[in-house]
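Continued from yesterday's entry.
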Amino acid sequence: MKSMYLAAALAALMGSAASAETIGVSMQSFDNNFQTLLREGINARVGEVNGATVQIEDAQTDISKQLNQVNNFIAAGVDAIIMTLTDTSAAAGISEAAEKAGIPLVYLNLEPENLGKLPAKQAYVGSKETDSGKLGAEAACSLLKEKGKASDAQVYILMGDLAHQASRDRTSAFKETLAAGDCKGATIADEQSAAWTRTNAMDLTTNWITAGQPIDVVFANNDEMAIGAIQALKAAGVSMDDVIVVGIDATQDGLAAMAAGDLDATVFQNAKGQSASAVDTAVSLVRGQSVEKNVWVPFELVTPKNMADYAARN
């Protein structure tokens, strides 16, 4: 797998003669739990690489703010830029600006729309988002079959920010997988964006409950929204034994909800692996070393049976 070369790359980076690489990092939002894990991972990896320093900025989900941060990094003459995009459609312009300035650029976690046309000295590190939706659908269908509801389940989907390819890919893969298997009789009753947040997800789920229609499955594009759905269901007196809730990320909060018996499945997204790979790729580009254009870090299904294996991984 392409991502496996990074262990050797790190050894080379740590053992090479020290130089003074400065990496500018623009994060989509410090308030997002998974983005926080990525930020912590970046700081940890930079501390292991000889000669590298990092400056991390919060874009606060504002594309204008993020573009200003990128421009400021370029003006300051940083050696490389890492970013999680606030709006993936802005990638082409950002790539052009970094290329013109001669500064290596690594997109992290949120796939840029120009993925297939990245200039030289640019790369993407992330996970194949369709895989997470597929795994989530397979888990939901397996649980529906156990309940005898595979043919007539009412399914609700909490999407992330619609400006993110991850949200669109996770949702489409979930629906396609559900429709192609033993649960093809299930109905997607509604799908709405809760913009990755727990509060928005709680409000949307409350609306669904108030409408009085049955809710058999809630698939959330991340654990934060899954937890918001759980909070709304419990506040309304709905037994969690009656609703299957599936998330993505396997954050500590998500695993705690699973341990409490509320979250039925989640899909581990390797924040440490992604952030470490992004730093390794950026430093390698600065040092003129070859890198993979796309570095894929696999998703993994997490259920109550194996959740202990993931307790300290994010």
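--- second protein ---
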Amino acid sequence: MHLTNSATSVTARHRRLLRDSALAVGCAALFGLLTVLVTGHWHPLEQLDQSWIDELHVFAREHRIWTASVQTLSDIGGTITMRALLGIAAAWLWLIGARVLAGWVAAQTLVGWGALWALKLAVDRRRPSFGDPVSHAGGPAFPSGHAMASAITCAVLVGLVWYRVHRRGRTAACTVAAVSVLTIGWTRIALGVHWPSDVVAGWLAAGIVLGAVTALVELWRPGALARDVRRVNWRTRPRVQRIIVPSVRPPRGAEPQGDPADHPDEAVR
């Protein structure tokens, strides 16, 4: 029995490592390809980016209320909000004793932030420019910080609730996360502050960070993440307390005590 459990545990760990490594390597390959196309000024990609931006900019200029709503969504899903959510999650996990899981969440935030600016400065792509912009943003364009931060945050939060809910809950969590990530990325294009390829690059960069950080933590502390997940489940599960009230019956022939109004049957007699 012990050998079987050990073999199963090792196999599960290897599967997790393979999955996380494949995510990081796959996203890195696609990100590298996209970067080559962007820096090489591949005409079909530039034409696609420009056509999307131009059409959305015209619409944004003609529909100010719609544009204000999009700006609000973009502000709500900004990098500060996303990092604050991860910071709260990391602090809560630390307080309940899931220290490795808390470090994993914090690492996703810090590594993501560092990787974002390293990639931005390395590529140094200009943002879309208009004579009458509807929004403003500073710094290089590639990759999109909003897209990257929202993808990392939503993936981490889904991972934290994954083992706390059943299939319907998981489906709902994944749906909300996917809609949030897509919406935030789309707002950056609609406001004319990012090219569509910047947003796609942000999602791919998020996949690199998620996979690489998780794989490194698993190599550093094998099985610690899984143990912390079980600890969180145990600490947050509902407690059911049973209160047993002993049944005490008065002796036969004893008169009821107290006000007769409390014993209407006795008062009738």
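The chain has a mean pLDDT of 83. Residues 160 and 229 are 8 Å apart (CA to CA). Will compare against the first tomorrow.
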